[in-house]
């Protein structure tokens, strides 16, 4: 019985030590990067119809977005305020359907309605 009590006490002490480490409070922005997007000029045909998925709030997947409604070209990416975000990036909608989350299943750019 004493061995069990000693083991239980040891387990509680170890848990308490680890829990205290995990409770460290840090600013949210220390854990994530918040970046925006942008749309290349829609009137420039050379910017559209390429192979780069272009995420908008309409493209929120369940749970992962693999394809988008619109695609842009390399010149389109160079002329918008978005970068090519890697697979696994979480997008948060900021207009229209505010607060929906999309997880990029492939590298993609994002419009200005998302972060």
Quick tags:
115 residues; alpha/beta; Adenine-n6-DNA-methyltransferase TaqI, Chain A, domain 2; three-stranded mixed sheet; 6 strands; 19% strand; elongated
CATH homologous superfamily heading: DNA methylase specificity domains
Give the percentage of residues in beta strands: 15-25%
The helical percent reads 10-25%
User: What string, H for helix and E for strand, traces the elements in order?
Assistant: HEEEHEEE
Number of strands: 6
Any overview of this molecule?
This protein has 115 residues and is of the alpha/beta class. The protein has one domain: DNA methylase specificity domains (Adenine-n6-DNA-methyltransferase TaqI, Chain A, domain 2, Alpha-Beta Complex), CATH 3.90.220. It is built from two helices and six strands. Strands 3-1-6 form a three-stranded mixed sheet. The longest helix has 21 residues, at 2-22. It is elongated.
């Amino acid at each position: 019985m004493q061995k069990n009590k000693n083991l239980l006490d040891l387990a509680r002490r170890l848990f308490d030590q680890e829990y205290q480490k995990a409770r460290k409070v840090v600013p949210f922005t220390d854990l994530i990067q918040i970046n925006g997007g942008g749309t290349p000029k829609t009137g420039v045909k050379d910017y559209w119809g390429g192979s780069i998925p272009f995420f908008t709030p309409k493209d929120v997947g369940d749970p992962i977005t693999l394809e988008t409604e619109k695609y842009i070209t390399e010149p389109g990416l160079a002329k918008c305020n978005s970068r090519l975000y890697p697979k696994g990036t979480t997008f948060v909608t900021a207009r229209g359907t505010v607060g929906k989350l999309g997880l990029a299943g492939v590298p993609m750019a994002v419009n200005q309605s998302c972060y």
